[in-house]
Design goal:
DUF218, Integral membrane protein, alpha/beta, Cell_Envelope_Assoc, 8 helices, 235 residues, two-stranded antiparallel ribbon
Length: 235
């Protein structure tokens, strides 16, 4: 319901006037082109920064730890994209490329627990529970990278995510002090994939600032021995 006196959508659209002169139109186009270039700069920098540190599970080097980033839940279970990340991590474990899987995600609400859902999925695919470590405060990629280094003591890792995100993850984790290699999980070029790629343009700007200024994550907390304990010889 529109309040009396408020302009309609048609009124607001009509109020937006494009430049009528050729010079004004040229400036508008130049401004739009400049904005597009500026939006692409951070994403391009991250792709170049990651360089040849991105590949498949078969190409990944042997590292003690794999880090899997959260990608949402549906009815308490991993979304298809998150499930594919976890499948890749399970493959890395089965083939002996990694010994421990650090799952990092959002548990800011009681009813929403990404790390536990990720753990359940991995154990269902043969990864022993004792080889899975949970980070419950991985609220974004930068927080996950910083906490992996400062809280869990990870200094070398294989990162697992989709191709549209993995370059940003590798760049951020390297900025946080982790020698990182990224596994790019292949996905069909569907609407979700294109949405993720478009979202990266917006996220890359924040990520560039995080890499430059290196802020503390939203929640840091004390060091946790989970990764070291999982790597310790049994018995």
């Amino acid at each position: 319901m529109r309040l009396p006196g408020w302009p309609t959508l048609r009124d607001r659209v009509a109020a937006v006037r494009l430049p009528r002169t050729r010079r004004g139109q040229r400036r508008l186009v130049q401004g739009l082109m400049a904005a597009c270039v500026l939006a692409l700069v951070p994403a391009t920098w991250m792709r170049l920064e990651a360089g040849d540190r991105v590949g498949t599970t078969a190409e990944a080097p042997a590292r003690e730890v794999a880090v899997v980033f959260g990608a949402g839940l549906w009815n308490g279970r991993p979304t298809p994209y998150l499930a594919h990340r976890l499948d890749a991590a399970a493959e890395l474990y089965r083939t002996g490329k990694v010994k421990v899987v650090l799952v990092t995600g959002d548990n800011s609400r009681v009813e929403y627990d990404e790390p536990d859902a990720m753990r359940t999925y991995l154990t269902g695919r043969g990864v022993p529970d004792g080889r899975i470590v949970s980070d419950y405060a991985g609220f974004d990629s930068w927080d996950s990278c910083v906490r992996a280094r400062k809280i869990f003591g990870v200094d070398r890792a294989v990162l697992v995510s989709q191709g549209f995100h993995i370059h940003r993850a590798v760049t951020l984790c390297r900025s946080a002090g982790i020698d990182a290699y990224g596994v790019a999980v292949d996905e069909p070029r569907d609407a979700t994939w294109y949405y993720g790629g478009a979202r990266e343009l917006a996220a890359s700007g924040k990520a560039a600032l995080d890499a430059l200024f290196r802020p503390d994550p939203r929640f840091l907390g004390p060091e946790e021995p989970g990764v070291a304990e999982a790597l310790a010889p049994s018995g």
